[in-house]
């Protein structure tokens, strides 16, 4: 079943296109990596799908409906820089926001909401920190709580923008295990990613992008040295090239 | 003494105008404290100031249309406030002009219009200075009713829309995704802001009201990590500041707005200097205490090792090299430790006393156990282990040390082959 349809999406900043004429059809129950060099428009694509940025041309459908009508089925984890970490808020309050769509206008979280928050905090191994103010968390812990919030939202689509940046190896593994669990529940997960070394291990499909769509398809077909080189416009570092050679 | 306090605090309360002023001050504290918390967290301080200034033409026009009464004051101020916030975002969105410039242009323009109207329109008599600088002693009954209604409305709104205000302040993107209109919440907050400005107009005045909106919340922010506590403290600081200002205004004839704001700033300064978590005084002493404590422990350990291996050269020189500190610092630290009875000076050679040896044993024990633990558990490799272990051993508790020993199966030696002392 097609979950996300993107037709001819173009988004510009100050009249300069950041992404141009993107077409995608994303199926249910897969983990998809969005890859490309810096400034290729990876985050822009995700924000475009969400309708966070005004598009010049294009149409986006989620479950066959306009984005605005399906937003509540999406959980989004933005890049960490987006938050004010000094904000007076603790871990469980952040995660509780994931339950807000289920709480009425003036309502307060009920026992069920609290139970779900407790469960997802256990899942991401953050139960001991539930009353910690978010500035006092490590990079990995900060990422875990936003994943927990996404889980509490019980959405069908998960959009993650660079979830593994500034995260320790153990957390990266833990996060990925949870993402795989989501996939088994037939959820759809899109991940903006920059580390080319783990692509084959992580993703069922990849979107290679450099303003325009370079390739989209199953990882073994779309993530080839030629296509990668095309996306990175020869900007691939020697180290990355060597890594690629070693692995292929 | 008690008599003086009575005279200062209670006696004025026999006058009706003081009673009114007191209630008005409390209202300002509550309404500005609550709304100000959100204004500060959303970084809207500049817009708050802008709205306060642009309320002036609204008030004058309100009076021109329907005479001098609280309803026209309220309607005029509210309309001006909302219009200003809409205009600011309109200019910003439809030109290259950034928000700060847009704010500057619009609020000074509006304020100038207000002054112009006051100076030209003789048919409405407005005491400009009481609006500009506040006159808490001149609060009328109708002013009081108005500010009470406003305060209750703000209080109820903040309680009812707690979720919406929280999520739009902390993570607007999330708010958008879950279907909360960020711009609706923004303009609602701007309405509440304009209302709180009206409530504070009479006692603080348009020029200084921004201080009541940001200084108490900022003070509260330095003292807590919790939003609900911050809202409460902010209201408390707001109330105390405005009531204090009122008494100064009454007894010494100070301008009420200025004395209220100065009191609030004093509280902020106190929090900035002495806050237990964030205060710079506390930070300074904590750093100093920690570094002197660590130095004592390092010196005791050094002397213990020297005695264990019977290598001891000149303690001062060796310590100065090992810890990269000046010899004079080491000498004064040694003197301090000696005065505590942990070491004794024997003809220039420092030796541990019995108490000193006990303490050193404990330190060495925790150091070596900690190192062993880190290696056993493969936490970091051998090369770096020494440095990292030293960082934590100062903070390990006796219980944790015993737990580590238990888990390691009571090892005899550390990874370097040095014996691990047993617990006494």
Structural class per helix/strand content of chain A? alpha/beta
User: Number of helical segments of chain B?
Assistant: 19
Helix content of chain B: over 70%
Instruction: Let me know the average pLDDT of chain B.
Output: 85
Strand content of chain A: 25-35%
> How many β-strand runs of chain B?
2
User: What sequence of helices (H) and strands (E) makes up the elements of chain A?
Assistant: EEEHEEHEHHHEHEHEEHHH
Helical residue percent band of chain A? 25-40%
Uncertain segments of chain A are none
Q: What about the largest sheet of chain B? A: 2 strands, antiparallel
Radius of gyration of CA atoms of chain A, rounded to a whole number: 18 Å
**How would you name the oligomeric state of the polypeptide chains in this document?**
heterodimer
- As laid out across the biggest beta sheet of chain A, the strand order is 6-7-8-3-9-10
Describe the 3D structure:
The complex is a heterodimer of chains A (248) and B (424). With 248 residues, chain A is an alpha/beta fold. Chain A is built from ten helices and ten strands. In chain A, the strands form two sheets. A six-stranded mixed β-sheet of chain A has the order 6-7-8-3-9-10, sandwiched between helices. In chain A, helix 4 crosses helix 5 (139-152). The longest helix of chain A has 16 residues, at 169-184. In chain A, 42% of the residues are buried. Chain B is an all-alpha fold and 424 residues long. Chain B is built from 19 helices and two strands. In chain B, helix 2 runs antiparallel to helix 12 (227-252) and helix 17 (354-376) crosses helix 19 (398-408). The radius of gyration of chain B is 32 Å and the shape is elongated. Chain B starts with a helix and ends in a 16-residue tail after the last helix. The interface between A and B is medium-sized, with 24 and 23 residues.
């Amino acid at each position: 079943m097609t979950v996300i349809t993107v037709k001819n999406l173009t988004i510009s900043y100050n009249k300069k296109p950041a992404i141009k004429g993107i077409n995608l059809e994303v199926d249910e129950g897969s983990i998809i990596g969005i890859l490309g060099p810096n400034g290729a428009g990876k985050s822009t694509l995700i924000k475009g799908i969400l309708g966070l940025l005004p598009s010049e041309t294009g149409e986006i459908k989620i479950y066959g409906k306009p984005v605005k009508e399906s937003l509540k089925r999406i959980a989004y984890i933005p890049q960490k820089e987006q938050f004010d970490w000094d904000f007076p808020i603790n871990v469980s309050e952040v995660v509780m926001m994931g339950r807000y769509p289920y709480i009425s206008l003036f309502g307060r979280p009920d026992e069920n909401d609290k139970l779900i928050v407790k469960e997802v905090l256990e899942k991401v191994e953050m139960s001991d920190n539930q009353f910690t103010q978010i500035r006092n968390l490590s990079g990995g812990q900060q990422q875990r709580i936003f994943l927990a919030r996404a889980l509490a939202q019980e959405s069908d689509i998960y959009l993650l923008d660079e979830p593994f940046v500034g995260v320790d190896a153990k957390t990266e593994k833990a996060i990925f295990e949870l993402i795989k669990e989501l996939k088994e529940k037939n959820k759809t997960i899109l991940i903006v990613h920059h580390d080319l070394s783990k692509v084959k291990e992580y993703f069922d499909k990849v979107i290679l992008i450099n303003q325009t769509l370079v390739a989209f398809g199953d990882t073994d077909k779309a993530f080839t040295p030629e296509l990668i080189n095309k996306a990175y416009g020869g900007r691939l570092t020697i180290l990355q090239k060597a890594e690629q050679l070693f692995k292929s | 003494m008690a008599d003086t306090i009575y005279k200062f605090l209670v006696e004025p309360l026999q006058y009706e105008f003081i009673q009114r002023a007191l209630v008005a001050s409390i209202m300002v504290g509550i309404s500005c404290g609550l709304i100000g918390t959100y204004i500060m967290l959303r970084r809207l301080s500049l817009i708050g100031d802008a709205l306060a200034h642009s309320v002036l033409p609204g008030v004058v026009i309100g009076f021109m249309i329907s005479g001098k009464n609280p309803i026209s004051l309220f309607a005029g101020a509210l309309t001006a406030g909302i219009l200003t916030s809409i205009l600011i975002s309109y200019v910003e969105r439809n030109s290259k002009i950034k928000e700060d410039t847009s704010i500057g242009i619009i609020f000074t323009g509006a304020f100038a219009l207000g002054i112009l109207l006051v100076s030209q329109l003789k048919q409405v008599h407005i005491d400009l200075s009481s609006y500009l600088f506040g006159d808490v002693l001149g609060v009328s009954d109708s002013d009081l009713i108005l500010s009470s209604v406003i305060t209750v409305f703000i209080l109820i709104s903040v309680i009812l829309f707690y979720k919406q205000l929280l999520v739009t302040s902390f993570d607007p993107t999330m708010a958008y995704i879950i279907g909360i209109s960020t711009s609706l919440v923004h303009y609602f907050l701007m309405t509440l802001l304009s209302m709180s400005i009206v409530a504070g107009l009479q006692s603080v005045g348009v020029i200084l009201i921004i201080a009541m909106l940001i200084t108490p919340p900022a003070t509260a922010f330095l003292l807590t990590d919790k939003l609900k506590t911050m809202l409460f403290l902010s209201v408390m600081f707001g109330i105390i500041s405005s009531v204090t200002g009122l008494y100064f205004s009454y007894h010494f004839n100070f301008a009420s707005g200025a004395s209220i704001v100065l009191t609030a700033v004093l509280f902020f300064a106190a929090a900035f200097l002495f806050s237990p978590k964030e205060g710079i005084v506390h930070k300074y002493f904590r750093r100093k205490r920690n570094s002197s404590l660590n130095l004592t422990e390092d010196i005791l350990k050094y002397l213990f090792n020297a005695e264990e291996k019977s290598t001891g050269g000149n303690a001062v020189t060796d310590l100065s090299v090992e810890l990269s500190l000046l010899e004079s610092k080491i000498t004064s630290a040694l003197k301090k430790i000696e005065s505590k009875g942990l070491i004794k000076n024997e003809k220039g050679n420092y030796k541990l006393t019995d108490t000193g040896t006990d303490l050193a044993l404990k330190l060495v024990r925790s150091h070596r156990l900690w190192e062993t633990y880190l290696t056993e558990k493969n936490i970091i490799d051998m090369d770096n282990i020494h440095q990292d272990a030293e960082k934590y051993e100062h903070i390990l508790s006796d219980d944790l040390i015993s737990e580590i020993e238990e888990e390691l199966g009571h090892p005899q030696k550390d990874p370097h082959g040095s014996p691990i002392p047993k617990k006494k």
